[in-house]
Amino acid sequence: MFHIYCPYCEEHREEEEFHAKGQAHIARPADPDACSDAEWGDYLFFRDNPRGIHHELWVHAVGCRKFFNITRHTVTYAILETYKMGEQPTITAESLARGEKAGNVQAASGGQQTVGASDAAVASVKGAQA
Amino acid sequence: MSDVRMFDSRPATAVDAESPLAVSNLAERARRSAADPGVTLRERAFLGHLILRGGAIVLDEAVREVLGVSLPARPGALVHDADGERSIQWLSPDEWLVIVPEGEAYSLEKRLRDALGDAHFAIVDVSGGQTLVELSGPRAREVLMKSTPYDVHPRHFPAGKGVTTIFGKATAILRRPDEDRWELVLRRSFADYCYRWLVDAGEEYGLAVEASGR
Q1: CB < 8 Å from B in window 11-30 of A
Q2: What is the CATH number of the domain that holds B143?
Q3: Percentages (nearest 5) of helix, strand, coil residues in chain B
């Protein structure tokens, strides 16, 4: 069981209280009528499936019922940070790859080792997020 | 002055009212209460429950004026007014639960609407949708420890705190108005289930049930 920090309740709560709602930071096309079918299909159906850092939307379903974001590692399942809607993550695949200290997580000197991914995987994650 | 039309849900003549726990037959269980109870369960039926939604700054002024207490802005906070009869609890960053004695909900809603005027807010009377069960006694905390994943240790759950959490697979609002009492705000449809859960969980500590008589 995870203890997940809800940024609105400002405390750690049991995983049972939460639901995952998929990838975060998906912007709706500003003008849907001007979208090609491929663009609209990408927006509606296609999601990243990275090996490593993933930014996800979660909801504190039994609790404050607010949506918020979690930065999670898909290999280790470690939750690196949670942040409110509308905010940007301080920990990303790039920041870990650079070996930056971000939030309360100290990335190891070889950032990739902390991430648990090879250079190629980091590059692919970067590519997916670009 | 608010231009929202309000419906006075209080009946003009006396009608039978049934709490969500009417089907659970508390009176029957009360006759078999333990002599020296470790846990005492009491339903406080027919209280007025109001949900306030809106910005904290806007609501705070109106709540201060009408209820005489300031809006609890800290997550999980629960405050009572001077005589302890009326409470207001933080539920989420823009949502609060107000519980007042029976029959006060309508006038309170009206006074809040008058005080808030044209501000952006919502007030919903949910009195019929939930009921309040009170647990007390030296072993009450142990019943809760079996029933909820939330940490109810006094260090983590001091008096004046309330949270929405899982209670025996259902959801409930768990609150601690003072050192000796715990309150559970149960949804109508979960009330009978949660009551049966509590009776089952409390049995081993010696359970006393106090029926409200209605």
Answers
A1: 11, 13-14, 16-17
A2: 3.30.1360.120
A3: 30, 30, 40
Domains of chain A: 3-129 (3.30.2270.10)
Yes or no: say if B135 and B147 are a contact pair by the CB < 8 Å rule.
no
Find the domain containing B192 and state its range. 23-210
- Rg of chain B on CA atoms, in Å: 18
Contacts of A64 in chain B (CB under 8 A): 75, 91-93, 95, 164
pLDDT in tens, B115-129: 999 999 999 999 999
pLDDT, tens digit, 9 for 90 and up, residues B158-210: 999 999 999 999 999 999 999 999 999 999 999 999 999 999 999 999 999 99
* Chain B hits for A17, Cβ within 8 Å: 149, 165-166
> The complex's ipTM?
0.89
Lowest mean pLDDT among A24-28, A88-92, B208-212: B208-212
Please give the Cα distance from B38 to B205 (Å, whole number).
5
